Structures are given as C-alpha cells and as structure tokens.
What we know:
- This protein is an all-alpha fold.
- The chain has one domain: Alpha Horseshoe (Serine Threonine Protein Phosphatase 5, Tetratricopeptide repeat), CATH 1.25.40.10.
- It contains 13 helices and no strands.
- The longest helix is centred in the last third of the chain and has 16 residues, at 213-228.
- The chain is globular and about 55 Å long.
Amino acid sequence: MKKELMGLALAAVVCGAAAGEAGTSAKRFEWTTASATARQKLLEVQQRIEDFQFGAETVEAARQIVAADPQFAMGEYYLSAVAPPPENQAHLDKAVLLSQKASDGERRFIEAMVKSRANQGQSFRDGIAPLEALAADYPDERLVQVILGQLYQGANDAEKARSAFRRADAIGPKSARVRAFLANEDLLDGRYDEARRTFLDVAASLPKGAAPFAVRYGLAFADLYDRTRPSPRSRSTSPSTATAGPRRASPRCSSGTRSRASTSRTAGSTRR
C-alpha cells in the first residue's frame, strides 16, 4: 500500500502569524497577496490539515482562497493539494504559472513540490535537495521543515526526519500532526509505550470529524510491535520490512500522496 507522506502537503498550518505580513522576517516566506480573506482562509486550510481534517469542507476552504485572490500562487497550490484528481493537476499547473510573479520562497517551494509530486509521488526524493536549500535560506519557515521531515521519513532517513520535525516544533506552534510524526520515530526505535501514549493523546486532542489515519496506523503498529519485538529498527531494512512500518509515507501527501487524503496532507502540512 502506498503510504502517505503523512501529512505534508499541505499545510503550512496556522500556527502563529501568517507569513508574508508586513515586517515579517526574511527568514520566512512572504505571501504574495494583498487579500486578508485569502490569508485567513489559507491559515484555515493549514490548520485543518494539521488537525487531520480532510474532505469537502477543506476543499471548499481552499477554493475560497483562490476566489479571494485568483493571482495568489499559494492559493492555487493548496487547492491542488486537497482537490481530487484530475482537477488537482490543473491547479498545480496554475500555481506554477503564478509563482513566476510570486516571492522567492513561494516560487521555489512550488517548484520543489512539483518535483516531489511527479510520477504520483514516486519521484519524491527529487524534491529533497531544493527543499533543503530553501530551509537554509528560510530557517524559520515551518512549512519547509514539516515537509522535509515527511520526505525524509519516506526515504527512511530517520535522523534527518526527527531533526526536521523537532525544528518545526521549535519554530512553533506545536501541532498534532508533528507530534504524530515524532511518535512514529519513537515507535521505530522500540519506545512502544511512549509512542502509544503520544498517539492516544493526539487522538484525544483532535476536533470532531478528524480522520487521523497516521495516528490509527501508528497505534496499530505499536500494538503489533509490542507483541513481536525486537525493535523494528533492528530488523532488516529489506523492501518488505521498510514498507511495513508507519514511517514510510508517500510523498503525494506532502505535496500530495496519491490518495486524496494523502495528497492534501503532504502538500501543505505545516502550521504557521
């Protein structure tokens, strides 16, 4: 089964002030829109993704970003991350066109995510290097750290994934999604009880209607691994083993995994 990049897609989620406001540090992206409604709806979409809320309401909120400012590249990008195929590709193509007149951070982010989402997410590793360059130039941009963390997970680079998620937490605000990602790392390191406690705590904190696949998946593996031991990390990393754990996520979410849910998750998963 194709794993969702557990969540990157999309969401640069609401955590704090929206990037791009006047006076914002150059270490974060600048949103190229003068529409207060577009900014507010972008934060709403990001927050919904961080809270594992997908479906028609999230798609509609993304459509409202585009309606408020049809020239806002990130609005089109976020709609591409949550809309179902084949509609999503048209919005991604539009985001690429609009990004040519967007800020440096927006343009480069969209270009990197196009690479990550290519071939239905199979080429997600192609987006890692440009996102790492973005992270170096915009060290306080939480969106980049959350997506990098998911891509590193998909590439089985546990240490880099953990570092990116911890950096996202340090930038803040903390989120259910990032806590779930870090719990996956605890799980794969054999800290089953700690991972289970975090997953249960995250599940209890989510709003009604959330669909926390990553949390349910993690809990299932926590029970499985706890019964079978030893720690999954000590096992062979053959393709069958590597795919068995909760950490392998398919990049289309971040940008989008192939499934609709995953698409929205990876594509924009980072609360701001």
